[in-house]
Amino acid sequence: MRCVWTVPVAKRSENTPGETQEELGWSQTTLPRISKQELKSLRRRFKQAREDETGPLAELRNILCKKFMTLRRAEWHWRRRKERARKRAAFIANPFQFTKQLLGKKRNGQLTCSKAEIDCHLRDTFCDRSREQDLSHCQHLIDPPTPTLDFDWKELSLK
Known about the structure:
Blueprint: H1 21-24, H2 26-30, H3 36-48, H4 51-93, H5 95-103, H6 115-126
């Protein structure tokens, strides 16, 4: 016996008079809209379903989840492509202003401490006072035995 399940799908209304295709967005014009409500209603039906109905409902929900994820990924790529095109156009129109906005405002101000204090702080923070001292012998290091065979210094050859 083959079961066919119908899932309620919210129908979209046609474009309102002030709405253009660009305002609708890419996914609404080319891909069917998959809503979270559809997934929610499927989950509810899955919980209320009998044991023989759970398999097909789970399969249907997996299909809808995959479509939903694909749709979200496609929308993200569409938004990213549009944003990159906008930034590219802004850079071509005025590269110096674009770079200035990208890097931020100039920093200016007065230091409240002297250069000697800064040098002292950097020296204390990043310098090692015991750098010149020799290290004593460490008991935890292993002394490897001397090799019994000499290393072969000949050039490599294919045998």
